[in-house]
Amino acid sequence: MALTVLIVEDEVDFGAIVALNLTRAGFSTIVAKTGEAGLEAARTRRPDLILLDLMLPDVQGTEVVRRLKADASTRMIPIIMATARGEEIDRIVGFELGVDDYVVKPFSMREMVLRVNAVLRRGNGAAPSGEEPSYTVGPLFVDGPAHRVFLDGREIELTALEFRLLVALVTNRGRVMTREVLLERVWGIQADIETRTVDTMTKRLRDKLGTLGRHVETVRGVGYRFSEGTQEP
């Protein structure tokens, strides 16, 4: 059965072109012209991925993301933000809210299809069993199947990308990971995203980890390392 992409786009012609190209690539599509219509379609149709415009006539795209992530029935649906605004701050805000990828208009339809496939692929193929394994590192417990993180028994709220960044660092603890490798591992493709995005997200992850955050070490000019010292009580 074809995977379904919900396109939330107020530009009718552009939305139709996106839907046509996704259909040609083998996807089923739903098109919503407003944020509220997109939210309703996400809750009732449960698409496999949402391609969401930032600038909508009724509800800002960032608010749509907040509502989707706050609803248990739509929280895990991956989101690609599509917008004509390409400033770095817009991308950072989107990633902080839990957006999985970001594409700036005008974009090629081939690029858009590649990004959709990449996001869906990384969401479905983490482990052979179909579930992400769990990890215990000192006081940190990463519950892979549930996508939850606990520190000293207290749950830490992470976005989907922050969770993937933590898993990438934890599974390679003691080894340096370059920013470019982290971009590929966490975002799933060799995307045109500035490495400063990795720095910003790593800082947010450190803050959320509290005292444990000091073990996410910066290796100057290279990238980051999750130090083996976290295994000590």
Describe this structure in words.
- The chain has 233 residues and is an alpha/beta fold.
- It has 2 domains: 4-124, Rossmann fold, CATH 3.40.50.2300; 135-231, Arc Repressor Mutant, subunit A (Orthogonal Bundle), CATH 1.10.10.10.
- It contains 8 helices and 12 strands.
- It has helices spanning 12-24, 35-45, 61-70, 88-97, 109-124, 160-171, 179-187, 196-209, and strands at 4-8, 28-32, 49-53, 79-83, 101-104, 135-137, 140-143, 148-151, 154-156, 177-178, 216-219, 223-226.
- It has a 5-stranded parallel sheet with strand order 2-1-3-4-5, with helices on both faces. It has a 4-stranded antiparallel sheet with strand order 6-7-8-9, covered by helices on one side.
- A hairpin with a 2-residue loop joins strand 6 and strand 7 (140-143).
- The radius of gyration is 18 Å and the shape is globular.
- The chain starts with a strand and ends in a 7-residue tail after the last strand.
- Residues 125-130 have low confidence and may be disordered.
General form: globular
Poorly predicted sequence stretches spanning 5 or more consecutive residues: 125-130
* Multimeric status of the protein: single chain
Any idea what the CATH architecture of the largest domain is?
3-Layer(aba) Sandwich
Give the percentage of residues in beta strands: 15-25%
In CATH's first tier, which class of the largest domain applies? Alpha Beta
Radius of gyration: 18 Å
Would you count the extended β strands for me? 12
> Helical residue percent?
40-55%
Helices and strands, in order, run as: EHEHEHEHEHEEEEHEHHEE
Strand line-up across the major sheet = 2-1-3-4-5
Largest β sheet strand count, sense and barrel closure: 5 strands, parallel
Whole-number tally of structural domains: 2
Report, as a whole number of angstroms, the end-to-end distance: 49 Å
Total helical elements: 8
